[in-house]
Specification:
With about 150 residues, this protein is α+β, with helices and mostly antiparallel strands. Helix content is about 45%, strand content about 15%. The longest helix is centred in the middle third of the chain and has 14 residues.
C-alpha cells in the first residue's frame, strides 16, 4: 500500500450543511481506505456525529454522583476516550463542568449529596463501604451529609 496522502480536511461543524439553523454537533472522524471507487481505491473520511443532547448526557455521567471515569464511560458508551477527554476539556473551558475529581467530596453539589444519602439510607455498613469506595468517598462523609439533611429539616 502506498503512503498516506496528506490530510486536508476542514469542516465547520456549526454549518456542516450550509444552513445556519442546524444544531451544533460534535464530529469524530476516521480515515479509511475504500475499494468501492474502482481503480486503485480511495481514502474516505467517515464521520460520527453526536448531538448536543447526547454529548451533554454523556458528560453528565462524569459528574457526581455517578462520577464515571473516562475509560469506563468510553467502554460503556462506545465513544473513544480521546473524544471524551476533548468534550470534558471543552466543557471545563466553557464553565459547564468544574474540575471535580472522583476522589474529592468537596465538589459535590447539594443535590448530589442528598442523592448519595438517599441511595445509602438502607445499606448495611459493608454495602455502604463498598458504595463509598466506588464513589471515592468515606462513610463518615455520607453520615455527615445525612446528619446535615436531618438538621436542615428541623
Amino acid at each position: 500500500m502506498d503512503a498516506l496522502p496528506p490530510a486536508r480536511c476542514q469542516m465547520d461543524v456549526l454549518q456542516r450543511s450550509g444552513r445556519p439553523a442546524d444544531p451544533p454537533v460534535s464530529v469524530v472522524a476516521s480515515l479509511k481506505w475504500s475499494q468501492a471507487y474502482g481503480g486503485g481505491g480511495k481514502w474516505i473520511i467517515e464521520m460520527k456525529h453526536y448531538s448536543a443532547e447526547r454529548k451533554a448526557a454523556v458528560l453528565q455521567k462524569m459528574l457526581p454522583p455517578t462520577s464515571l471515569s473516562v475509560a469506563e464511560l468510553a467502554k460503556q458508551e462506545g465513544i473513544s476516550d480521546v473524544t471524551l477527554y476533548h468534550w470534558r476539556k471543552q466543557a471545563m473551558a466553557s464553565g459547564a463542568m468544574s474540575a471535580v475529581t472522583k476522589k474529592t467530596a468537596e465538589g459535590w453539589s447539594a443535590e448530589s449529596k442528598l442523592a448519595a444519602v438517599v441511595e445509602t439510607a438502607l445499606l448495611s455498613e459493608v454495602a455502604l463501604s463498598e458504595y463509598c469506595r466506588e464513589k471515592g468517598l468515606y462513610p463518615g462523609q455520607v453520615k455527615a451529609w445525612k446528619q446535615a439533611c436531618i438538621v436542615g429539616q428541623q
